[in-house]
Write a structure and sequence with these properties.
With about 375 residues, the protein is mainly α. It contains 14 helices and seven strands.
């Protein structure tokens, strides 16, 4: 036999609906009739089933199991401080594990507070997601305060990011003015978050610039080996010699600058006295190549073996900053090589898929 409890609207509150549940005597005889009443701030009493509340909330379970001073058959649990509709939506979620978009739009903040107070994690997760999707400049400060009180870190972080990115607009809202007057500690946390976010952006930008420099140096090392081994458009090994028919290489922009630097280095008269900055740069590139080269015995780059021998004899002169530079250049070279291999595999896989798709058509 199936019994359905369905009180559509509660008397005196036409906009507040009572929870609806359909149960069977065979499955849950204790749920046959409501045995607890929820009392709201507006004096509304919502009849509910104690077993449903116990199964959904450990806090409500403790309240229901708590010994009462007066032995009466009526059990009343007050849920105060929020609108009657929010309490009704909360109880409805305990019954159905569902919350409509309309309820989230209207009572999302209150439902998050209730889910935290009464330990209903599913509703708390739903409210965190729903409120995060509805964040605006006007409500971000209020939601931020609630997220901190209700221990909702995902929502808290989302509010912080919005407040930091749109701070000029946020500081003009009434919520921010209220925050300055009543919660200076949270105001300080927001300002610290903004400062840390700006510092992270600067560190990331600086790291990218450094990585770009290391990649350029790594590419220069490759071009130097290429020029000294195969030759490029205007500079090459003495036994090979450049030819007019030779075309530019794949990294010609770097190769061209390096060829100009080599030609200047070969003819400069100031480098003997150490007064030429361009020649100093060339010496540094040759030294850097020697530090990263693993085939010094067969290497065709000038002075490679001499720099290695000098570094072995003068270990004290090889300072930590230079070793760090060499390590970074080698790391950049490895990352560049891996990325090129990955890009090549992806291009080959695309070509394979394209060929297969063409062959699958009958022409």
């Amino acid at each position: 036999m199936e019994v359905c409890y369905n009180a559509n609207t509660i008397a005196g509150h036409p906009d507040v609906h009572s929870p609806v549940t359909t149960l069977t005597k065979e499955n849950a005889p204790a749920f046959y009739e409501p045995d607890v009443q929820i009392l709201t701030s507006g004096g509304l009493r919502i009849p509910v089933h104690a077993s449903i509340l116990v199964s959904a909330s450990p806090v409500l379970e403790n309240i229901i199991d708590r010994p009462r001073k007066h032995r009466s058959t009526e059990k009343v649990i007050p849920i105060l401080g929020v609108p009657c509709g929010a309490v009704s939506s909360f109880i409805g979620f305990l019954y159905t594990s569902r919350c409509t978009e309309e309820e989230m739009e209207k009572y999302g903040i209150h439902l998050l507070a209730l889910s935290h107070v009464y330990s209903v994690p599913q509703l708390k997760q739903r409210c965190t997601k729903g409120l995060g999707e509805r964040l605006t400049i006007d409500n971000v400060v209020d939601v931020l305060q609630l997220a901190r009180l209700c221990d909702a870190p995902d929502l808290y972080l989302r509010c912080m990011k919005l407040a930091a990115s749109r701070f000029k607009a946020v500081e003009k809202t009434e919520g921010w003015k209220f925050l300055q007057d009543h919660d200076p500690w949270l105001e300080l946390q927001i300002l610290q978050f903004m400062d840390e976010a700006e510092s992270r952006i600067k560190r990331t930008r600086r790291r990218r610039q450094e990585q770009g420099l290391y990649l350029q140096l790594s590419e220069a090392m490759e071009c130097l080996e290429h020029i000294c081994t195969e030759g490029c458009t205007s500079v090459g090994p003495y036994e090979v010699g450049p030819t007019k028919n030779r075309g530019p290489c794949s990294k010609f922009s770097t190769c061209q600058g390096l060829q100009l630097l080599i030609r200047h280095f070969a003819t400069c008269k100031k480098r003997v006295n150490g007064g030429c900055l361009r020649c100093k740069r060339m010496w540094q590139l040759l030294r850097l190549h020697s530090s990263v080269c693993e085939q010094s015995d067969s290497c065709r780059v000038p002075l490679c073996r001499q720099f290695k021998l000098k570094a072995q004899l003068e270990k004290k002169g090889d300072d930590g900053r230079w070793r760090l530079l060499v390590k970074k250049v080698v790391s950049a070279k490895t990352i560049s090589s891996l990325s090129q291999q990955k890009r090549k595999r992806m291009e080959e896989s695309r070509g394979t898929v394209g060929d297969y798709s063409i062959r699958s058509f009958k022409l």
